Amino acid sequence: MSPPTMARTVKGGLIQVANAKSEGSVKEICTAMLEKTLPFIDKAGKAGVQMLCMQEVFNTPYFCPAQTPNWYDAAEACPGPLTSLMSEYAKKYSMVIVVPLYEREMAGVYYNTAAVIDADGKYLGKYRKNHIPQTSGFWEKYYFKPGNLGYPTFKTQYGVVGVYICYDRHFPEGARLLGLNGAEVVFNPSATVAGLSQYLWKLEQPAHAVANGYFVGAINRVGTEAPWNIGKFYGTSYFVDPRGSFLATGSEDKDELVVADMNFDMIEEVRRVWQFYRDRRPETYGDMAKLLP
């Protein structure tokens, strides 16, 4: 009789915080936000978190409610200074870190990006947000080009990571491609306020997890951000498993670290029951890419 195998359990962490500073230069505001977040990264490391993700453009406010060019100053190269700093934390705690940031590729070309750093501090690559909204309070096309890197996944020391960013979550096509590309957990760093889409927050991503047989870590900000004051970022960051069960959920209004254990062995178990990858019919879906809205 063969000996029992250990469950492949990975401890995940999500950081949700309110904006730290509303007045001052762009540099001062971003520095304050970074300094507020770093103790939570330390907390995650000391708690044994092995995969960590922060909220969308984590070291800035959500500046997209207005169309003002001064926020271009918040963008930086990726890899660059911020990823270098996060690499030091990754090495210190042997922790994979997903780093959502505002990326400057060249003058006038900016992306909403998330870098992935392995537990040894190695920069593995980045995902650029593919779906960019342009509506009242969310004028993102003013600040971000649509992503051009597809739907990559990243083989880390603890498992395969995919990233989807905020508005992406409304599009099941990319969620499926992340699964087809081998994602075991998909992190979705977000900035979303109470109102129209709040009821979707706990519907869409559990549905992605079930349809694709992977874990999802969804992150949202908390608080109200001046001077824009577009509404309350309602937190409730959470982890959900491939059955759609919630493993841990954050509060609506507190800065906090949300932690959950993900048993990656469940992915195989669930996919043997729900054979969505076996039974899908990609040869019948061609019109999806051809039909205009």
What does it look like?
Helix content is 22%, strand content 26%. The strands form four sheets. Strands 5-4-3-2-1-16 form a six-stranded mixed beta sheet. It has a six-stranded mixed beta sheet with strand order 8-9-10-11-14-15, covered by helices on one side. The radius of gyration is 18 Å and the shape is globular. α1 (26-46) links the parallel β1 (9-16) and β2 (51-53). The protein has a single domain (10-282), classed as Nitrilase/N-carbamoyl-D-aminoacid amidohydrolase, CATH 3.60.110. The model has no long low-confidence stretch (mean pLDDT 96). It has helices spanning 26-46, 81-93, 172-180, 204-212, 265-273, 276-279; strands at residues 9-16, 51-53, 96-106, 109-117, 123-128, 134-135, 138-139, 153-155, 160-163, 185-189, 215-219, 222-223, 233-234, 238-240, 246-249, 256-263. The protein contains six helices and 16 strands. It is an alpha/beta fold and 293 residues long.
Mean pLDDT level? 96
Distance between the termini: 58 Å
Dominant shape = globular
What is the helix fraction of residues, given as a range?
10-25%
The main sheet comes to: 6 strands, mixed
CATH class: Alpha Beta
What structural class is derived from the secondary structure elements?
alpha/beta
CATH superfamily: Carbon-nitrogen hydrolase
Rg, rounded, reads 18 Å
Give the number of domains. 1
Order of helices and strands: EHEHEEEEEEEHEHEEEEEEHH
Tell me the number of strands. 16
Q: Which regions have little confidence, pLDDT < 50, spanning 5+ residues?
A: none
Counting H and I runs of at least 4 residues, what is the number of helices? 6
The CATH topology is given as Nitrilase/N-carbamoyl-D-aminoacid amidohydrolase
What would you say the CATH architecture is? 4-Layer Sandwich
What percent strand? 25-35%
Task: Order the strands across the largest sheet as they lie in space.
Answer: 5-4-3-2-1-16
